[in-house]
Specification:
The chain is α+β, with helices and mostly antiparallel strands. The protein has helices at residues 32-43, 122-139, 145-149, 153-163, 168-175, 180-194, and strands spanning 6-13, 24-29, 47-51, 65-76, 82-97, 105-112. The chain has six helices and six strands.
C-alpha cells in the first residue's frame, strides 16, 4: 500500500533562513501576512514550510525544495507579533503553488522521507569533525567538542549546515543534497573554501 506524501503547506519565503531536518530555527514574526500564517498554523497542524525565494521581488518565484517546520515554541507579543521556534521535520519538494485568498502563500508539496539508516563512514565523519574544528578556530567560535563528538551523524551534518555562515545559494545546495554523505562532502568543501574567500564574512557559491 502506497503512502500519500503530498500535502498542502503554508510557506514562509525567507532568503538565508534555511531549515534542516531535526534542527531548530527561531523566528521573529512581525509582518501582518506572516502573523496570519502563524495564526493559521497554530489553529491547524502547527506546520510551516520554510523555503527560499529565488529573487528579491515582492512575489518572487520559489526554490523547488524547502523544509517543513513544526512550531514547538511560541510567544505571542502584545502588539500582535510572534516569537516562534520551528523544528525541522522533513524536506519537501514544491509541486505547485495554490491560488489562494489568504495573505500568505500556500503550496502543494511532496514530503521527502528521511533515510533513518543514513550514516557516514568513519573516515568521512572524522573529516567533517576535523574541518569543523579548523573552521571554528578561524572564526573564533567557542565549541564544546566533547558534546559535538556525541552527536549522531545527521545531527552533526545538519547542525553545521544550519548554523554555518554560508550564503543562501550554499545553504540551498546543502538542503538539496541527495543524502547525508553528499551533504557532508559539500560541507567539508565549503569549510575548506572559507579560508580562500575574498574577505567577505559569508561563504558564497555565486
Amino acid at each position: 500500500m502506497s503512502v500519500d506524501t503530498r500535502t498542502r503547506l503554508a510557506v514562509f519565503p525567507l532568503a538565508g533562513a534555511v531549515l534542516f531536518p531535526r534542527m531548530h530555527l527561531p523566528l521573529h514574526i512581525f509582518e501582518p501576512r506572516y502573523r496570519a500564517m502563524v495564526q493559521h498554523a497554530l489553529s491547524t497542524d502547527q506546520r510551516i514550510g520554510m523555503v527560499q525565494p529565488r529573487s528579491a521581488e515582492s512575489l518572487p518565484p520559489l526554490f523547488n525544495m524547502g523544509c517543513v517546520g513544526k512550531i514547538i515554541h511560541v510567544e505571542a507579543l502584545e502588539d500582535g507579533r510572534y516569537n516562534i521556534v520551528l523544528e525541522g521535520q522533513a524536506r519537501f519538494r514544491l509541486i505547485k503553488e495554490h491560488d489562494v485568498t489568504t495573505a500568505f502563500r500556500q503550496v502543494e508539496a511532496e514530503i521527502l522521507p528521511e533515510n533513518d539508516d543514513d550514516a557516514l563512514g568513519m573516515m568521512q565523519r572524522a573529516s567533517v569533525e576535523r574541518e569543523a574544528r579548523r573552521f571554528a578556530d578561524r572564526q573564533g567560535y567557542a565549541v564544546d567538542w566533547e558534546a559535538v563528538s556525541r552527536l549522531d551523524d545527521e545531527a552533526l551534518v545538519n547542525g553545521i549546515a544550519q548554523v554555518a555562515p554560508f550564503d543562501p545559494a550554499a545553504k540551498q545546495a546543502l538542503l538539496e543534497a541527495d543524502d547525508l554523505a553528499s551533504r557532508a562532502d559539500l560541507i567539508v568543501q565549503l569549510m575548506q573554501f572559507f579560508g580562500r574567500h575574498d574577505g567577505d564574512s559569508r561563504v558564497t557559491l555565486q
